[in-house]
């Protein structure tokens, strides 16, 4: 095994498994706790409209926000109040009832997020 130098860093290893995106430790040894974002992606919020599995009702889904779960919940609350509708946070995505893409995009851009409308 080669000797480690002072200015080298680990690029890839199959030894420990997945690494935390914030503290770069194994997920079992992560010190971030619940403050770690569930998804870190490219930081662009993707806003789309879905109707599948909802009896034909439209739902606006916002993905790709690199936020901790509690910050995601508070952002969802602001968006629901702005649109005047209900919604939920499910598996790291914000769901807003109805086709609210333009309203959500304007609100997210006002908060400082980069947004894209995805889908048709």
Q: Tell me, briefly, the overall form.
A: elongated
The CATH superfamily label of the domain at 38-117 reads SUI1-like domain
CATH topology of the domain at 38-117: Translation Initiation Factor Eif1
* CATH class wording of the domain at 38-117: Alpha Beta
Instruction: Briefly note the structural class of the backbone.
Output: alpha+beta
C-alpha end-to-end distance: 53 Å
List key phrases describing it.
120 residues; alpha+beta; Translation Initiation Factor Eif1; five-stranded mixed β-sheet; 2 helices; 22% helix
Descriptive account of the structure:
This protein has a domain at 38-117: SUI1-like domain (Translation Initiation Factor Eif1, 2-Layer Sandwich). The protein contains two helices and five strands, in the order ββαββαβ. The relative contact order is 0.16. Strand 1 (44-50) and strand 2 form a beta hairpin. It has 120 residues and is of the alpha+beta class.
